Amino acid sequence: MKFFVDTADVAAIRELNDLGMVDGVTTNPSLILKSGRDILEVTKEICDIVEGPVSAEVVAAKAEDMIREGEHLVKIAPNITVKVPLTWDGLKACKVLSSQGHKVNVTLCFSAAQAILAAKAGATFISPFIGRLDDINFDGMELIAQIREIYDNYDFQTQILAASIRSVNHITDAARIGADVITAPPAVIKAMANHVLTDKGLEQFTADWAKTGQKIV
Ligand code: G3P
Questions:
Q1: If exposure means fewest CB atoms within 10 Å of the residue's CB, which of 45, 48, 103, 159 is most exposed?
Q2: Are 82 and 74 in contact (CB under 8 A)?
Q3: DSSP the chain
C-alpha cells in the first residue's frame, strides 16, 4: 500500500518524507487556501521534496479549460499528477490529458458507477471520498470494496486512492480491502503510531528501570 499525504503543508510533508513514509502528495483548492501559499510556488516546493506523484487540482469547469490548466500544471515538475473532478467535463479532460501521457487523478468520486467511468477515461488514480460519505451516513468503506471488486473483475489498471480519510481505522480498513493508495492528513498518519497499551507498557518499563539504578550509556 502506498502512502500519500493529503496536505500542502511543506514542513509536515518534509517530516514524514524524512521517515520514508511519503510515496506521494495530494492537494486540492481547500488545502492550497489553508497553506496560504501560491499554488505554483508551493506545488513546486513539494515536488522538490517528494519523488512520487504530487496531485495538483484544476479549478475550471469546462473540459477545454481544465486541459489548459492541466497542461500548465504539468510544467511545474515531472512528478505532477493532474487532478480533475468527476464530472462529464472532468472525464473528457482526463481522457485528453492521459492520452498525452500525463498522470491523472479523478477526484470527488462518490459511487462505483463514477469509478468505472474514470477507469474507462484512462485515469491513473480514482479518489473515492470515504469521510464525506460517512458524514452523510453512507458507508464510505463499502464504496472502496465495490470499486476494488469491479476493477479486479475487469483488470482495470486505475489505482484506487482512498481519500477523505479521517481516522486510523479508515487506513487499516482500506488496506484490508486492498486500496492501492491512501491519502491522509499528516496528523492521521502520525496517529497510527499511538496505542494506549504502548503508553502503559512504556510507563511501567520506565518506572522499573529507574528502580534498577542502572544506566545504558
Ligand atoms: O484530497 C481530497 C480529500 O482527501 C479531502 O478530504 O477531509 O476534506 O473530506 P476531506
A1: 48
A2: yes
A3: -EEEEE---HHHHHHHHHTT--SEEE--HHHHHHHTS-HHHHHHHHHHH-SS-EEEE---SSHHHHHHHHHHHTTS-TTEEEEEESSHHHHHHHHHHHHTT-EEEEEEE-SHHHHHHHHHTT-SEEEEBHHHHHHTT--HHHHHHHHHHHHHHHT--PEEEEBS--SHHHHHHHHHHT-SEEEE-HHHHHHTT--HHHHHHHHHHHHHHHHHT----
Q: What is the pTM of this model?
A: 0.96
Closest to 174 in 3D by CA, of 123, 135, 126: 126
Q: How far is the CA of 188 from the centre of ligand 1 (A)?
A: 12
Which residue's CA is minimally distant from atom 7 of ligand 1? 164
C-alpha 25/C-alpha 27 separation (Å) is 7
Q: Determine contact, residues 56/44, Cβ cutoff 8 Å.
A: no
Q: Ligand 1 centroid to 217 CA: how many Å?
A: 46
Domain ranges of the chain: 2-212
83 catalytic per annotation:
yes
State which amino acid sits at residue 211: K
The correct answer on CATH 3.20.20.70 for the domain covering 2-212 is: yes
